[in-house]
């Protein structure tokens, strides 16, 4: 199955796609950020630790996961406001339902929706992404854990255009947001994971100075998705 969550110690980085989510706030407006697919709350822990003012709203379809996370992964502490007013608000329900929204729109939407270790099939359809994008405020962005490649890709393989083509979620995002999609590939030991970000490519120098130093080199790896 999918590794649901790794609880970071203070300022520990997971060296996985959760770290990428922490880099989102500097490239979106101030405002609430949605976590679609909360799991045990690893991303929420890390984001509130780095950005203690952030208002997170997380959707999780499985109430059992939320109960376990509150009991064993410290999620209930995230539901209390920090000194700077940030907190996690938990919603139990379908992250893709039209009601999973907020008045005025989200500044950012983080999508991490898996079932049985695979990205939800709906996320391989451009229409789904257009619906999710309607929930953003102006200049808001979506950041997505796109999972791995459909076909085995050797880790030495290039990071050229050919490599993202093997990821059906990125393909769907590219057709939903032509010229407005960026991606990067994370190679963690044995697995390859793709992450995508909607909107124009941010100024990478500026972005890298606005995130914790551990993430600075990593935000410079984003590239625009060019459809040939």
From TrEMBL:
This is Methyltransferase type 11 domain-containing protein. One of its GO terms (biological process) is methylation. Belongs to the methyltransferase superfamily. Keywords: Methyltransferase, Transferase. It comes from Aegilops tauschii subsp. strangulata (Goatgrass). GO terms for molecular function: methyltransferase activity.
């Amino acid at each position: 199955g999918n590794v649901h969550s790794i609880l970071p110690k203070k300022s520990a980085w997971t060296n996985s796609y959760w770290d990428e989510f922490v880099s989102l706030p500097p490239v979106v407006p101030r405002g609430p950020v949605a976590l679609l697919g909360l799991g045990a709350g690893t991303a929420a822990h890390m984001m509130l630790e780095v950005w203690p003012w952030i208002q997170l709203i997380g959707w999780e379809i499985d109430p059992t996961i939320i109960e376990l996370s509150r009991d064993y992964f410290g999620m209930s502490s995230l539901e209390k406001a920090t000194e700077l007013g940030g907190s996690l608000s938990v919603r139990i329900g379908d992250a893709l339902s039209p009601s999973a929204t907020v008045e005025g729109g989200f500044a950012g939407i983080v999508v991490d929706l898996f079932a049985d270790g695979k990205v939800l099939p709906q996320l391989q359809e451009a229409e789904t992404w257009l619906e999710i994008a309607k929930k953003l405020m102006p200049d808001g962005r979506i950041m997505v854990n796109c999972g791995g490649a459909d076909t085995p890709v050797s880790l030495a393989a290039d990071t050229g255009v050919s490599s993202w083509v093997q990821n059906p979620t990125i393909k769907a995002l590219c057709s939903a947001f032509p010229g407005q999609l960026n991606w990067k590939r994370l190679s963690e030991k044995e697995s390859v994971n793709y992450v995508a970000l909607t909107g124009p490519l941010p100024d990478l120098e500026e972005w890298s100075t606005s995130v914790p130093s551990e993430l600075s080199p990593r935000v410079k790896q984003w590239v625009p998705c060019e459809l040939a």
